[in-house]
What does this fold into?
Amino acid sequence: MVVKEYVTYNQVHKLCQEAAPRILEQFQPQLMIAIGGGGYVPARILRSFLKQPGSPNIPIQAIGLSLYEELPSHHPSGTNTPGQIEIPGTKVTRTQWLDLTSLGEMENLVGKRILIVDEVDDTRTTLEYAVKELEKDVELARQKLGAKAEKTVFSIFVLHNKNKQKKGKLPEDMLAEDRYLAARTVGDVWICYPWEATDIEEHDALAKAAESG
It folds into this structure.
């Protein structure tokens, strides 16, 4: 039986608030890249806590990657059931990439400190793909600028890291330099986030029942 853990918006807000001081101290991001759709809300909340007096808001870019395949609903009405379980796919699909109309050129990312944001580190396959593809694109842009151009430094923030064997790998220098931060490490449970709920009141009730139980 799959164990489900229901997370509320309030809990997500507090996890971002808790992580922000360390992100400011260690990562000092100049740009956030949210992996959709789970990274959108944490990135936006995080931006409020990373805002420094006299400084502009940190820009947020979005990329879309698809790894999970949704199981068909068995509900008579055909609607999704709360916390509907998905199964991991075997291939990452790029559904959306960086918006160069607002970034200008890819060269504008060269030498920057960039924070990649997602909701959960499950098999690590999606994160591995995101980091590899972003590093590849930025490195090509850096080479166009010449050998003296500074390297872009990527960091990662996730709300939850599942304590399980990972299929994907992150760069050794990223881990060695502590540029990976998970607000919480949890067991291999199915995490139900509030933005996935079709009935938010029922979702919050299930989260409250789990806390009291």
